[in-house]
Design a protein that fits this description.
The chain has 223 residues and is mainly alpha-helical. The chain contains 9 helices and 2 strands; from the N terminus they run E-H-H-H-E-H-H-H-H-H-H. It starts with 6 loop residues before the first strand and ends in a 14-residue tail after the last helix.
């Protein structure tokens, strides 16, 4: 019989999928409002003047999609959860529902206040990366993962979310120095984390090619 504080991962993942769906719906709501142009102005031109709303939708949709891909990837190995894990997952979902706001602000003000706009956007990404790392690290450290899977893959997955947190912190700080470089870094991040399984597999293969032990480095564990 399971301890009272534990639960299967199925309900957690189902609830999370619902939140992801709601977050994407919130993005669409901003497009429902029809922009008003000057009298006689062609409709196409009216929408071209309102391009930032479509940019916000595209960036927000891709962001939430990449977040969902990584969440689904994690739950391919997570078999159960406890109360703390549920709260960590809830914090991640809170950040997911927050995504439409900084994305819309960036699209609206990137031309006039680029550092502040991209900085707000970047801070959200840093928090998101940290939330993913905390969620996965907690699952590793508290025996919530599939015992039959490869521990080396778990270590590699932990590493990519640790790297993502550091990478996003660097990108956030660069927002106040060069917004173009920061935006370029976010584009790279999108490309990499759209395929977390592939990235983890590359790191796992690299780890297997390295010596199993080194001075000061333990050979086991999921850290």
């Amino acid at each position: 019989m399971k301890p009272a504080q534990e639960m299967g991962s199925g309900r957690i993942e189902a609830f999370s999928d619902g939140v992801f769906a709601i977050a994407i719906t919130l993005l669409v709501l901003d497009l429902i409002e029809i922009p008003h142009g000057a009298a006689g102005e062609p409709l196409l031109q009216v929408y071209l003047h309102d391009w930032h709303r479509f940019l916000a939708f595209a960036v927000g949709f891709i962001t939430i999609l990449v977040c969902w891909i990584n969440h689904h990837f994690m739950f391919g190995f997570i078999r159960k959860g406890d109360s703390r894990f549920v709260w960590l997952n809830g914090f991640l979902l809170f950040l997911v529902t927050f995504i439409p706001f900084p994305t819309a602000v960036m699209a609206q003000y990137i031309g006039t206040q680029p550092r502040t706009a991209v900085g707000l956007f970047g801070f959200g990404y840093f928090m998101m990366a940290a939330a993913y790392y905390l969620l996965w690290a907690y699952a590793c450290d508290h025996g919530l993962l599939d015992c039959d899977s490869d521990p080396a893959r778990f270590r590699a997955t932990r590493a990519i979310y640790r790297y993502a947190t550091i990478y996003n912190l660097a990108a956030f700080l660069l927002c106040f120095v060069s917004t173009s470089v920061a935006i370029g870094m976010y584009l790279v991040m999108f490309a990499v984390f759209a395929f977390p399984g592939w990235f983890a597999e590359r790191l796992r293969a690299r780890e297997q090619r390295m010596p199993t032990t080194s001075p000061g480095r333990p050979s086991g564990g999921l850290r």
